[in-house]
Specification:
The chain is built from ten helices and eight strands. It has an eight-stranded mixed sheet with strand order 7-5-6-4-1-2-3-8, with helices on both faces. β2, α2 and β3 form a beta-alpha-beta unit. α1 runs parallel beside α2, α5 runs parallel beside α8 and α9 packs antiparallel against α10. The protein is elongated and about 95 Å long.
Length: about 300
């Protein structure tokens, strides 16, 4: 059994994996703690899996390799990796060397100081591209105002206690967003500043489309405010429409005033119709997620374990 487990989701990062492993091995060996590294290949399209196998073949017995049969996303891949951990401390990090392995000691030191359930590595200077940085900030702001994460902080470079990981492993829904789920179980969350480096190779796999899809998936899966907003808007417009209707009837019956306003009526009808269609679309998304959950669609599909 290891003291420290490192879980790394891998996607198209063949050029950084050898250096990542070497630096991790050097840092963790120097710490004096027993450790293991779990690489979860999220169905990479490059030679990442072959590179990982070569690293393991070169005598890296502390490594576990998991290859997924299809791409399921970073958070689902991490949950998969949790099932192969034995450490009392579990750390997640990216595969592209933007999270320097040397900063792991800061997370461990903060944990040993206060024994928080979760310790986030918060970047001093974020080195993501504009699209990724904007998407991350939107997700954090949404978490702060609409969901359980009232601090609005987070990153993929984080430390978990064993107890929290055991809880997270039980989440088998199709869409998983770890940074929201942990707030269901604990408020004992701390953060420590860490360095964040630019990518050495390639570019982020998070496109505008993927970030937008993830953003709306978080809103639909973890918060109920869209449904509450629909109810509030619906009741408000119903009340306004009723008052306007009563005013027009009073004018016609008691003051014999012709009621013009064909254009206004058409505009009101078009607006109310579009509002109803939008509301049905949001409700449809909730039903779609419930449908997937009821079907029992798994969060990941394991192909090979080495």
């Amino acid at each position: 059994m290891a003291e420290v487990s490192i879980v790394i989701p891998v996607y198209n990062s063949t050029r950084s994996l050898v250096e990542l492993h070497e630096r991790l091995n050097r840092v963790l060996t120097a710490s004096g703690k027993s450790f293991e590294i779990i690489f979860v290949d999220d169905n990479s399209k490059d030679l990442s899996w072959d590179t990982l196998k070569k690293i393991k073949e070169n005598g890296a017995e502390h490594i576990t390799l998991v290859q997924l049969k299809k791409n399921v996303g970073q958070h689902n891949a991490i949950i998969c990796g949790f099932n192969f951990c034995s450490g009392e401390i579990i750390i997640t990090m990216d595969d592209d060397l933007q999270h320097p392995p040397e900063e792991i000691n800061k997370l461990i030191a903060q944990y040993e100081k206060n024994h928080a359930d979760v310790v986030y590595g918060i970047y001093k200077n974020r080195q993501h591209g504009i699209v990724r940085s904007t998407g991350s900030k939107m997700a954090q702001k949404s978490s702060k105002y609409f969901a359980n994460n009232k601090k609005g902080t987070g990153s993929s470079f984080r430390l978990f206690s064993r107890a929290i990981v055991d809880r997270l492993k039980g989440h088998l829904q199709n869409f998983i967003y770890i940074d929201e789920i942990i707030h269901w179980y604990t408020g004992n969350i701390e953060a420590v500043e860490v360095d964040h480096h630019p990518r050495k190779e390639g570019k982020s796999s998070y496109s505008i489309f993927k970030l937008t899809r993830m953003y709306f998936s978080v809103l639909i899966n973890f918060v109920a405010w869209p449904l509450k907003a629909i109810t509030f808007i619906g009741v408000s417009f119903s009340l306004i429409s009723f008052i306007i209707g009563v005013l027009y009837i009073i004018k016609k019956v008691f003051f014999n005033v012709d009621v013009p306003g064909f254009t206004a009526i058409i505009v009101l009808l078009c607006f109310s119709t579009s509002l109803m269609l939008m509301s049905l679309g949001i409700i449809g998304q909730y039903l779609f997620k419930i449908y997937h959950q009821q079907n029992g669609k798994p969060p990941y599909y394991i192909n090979t374990v080495l």
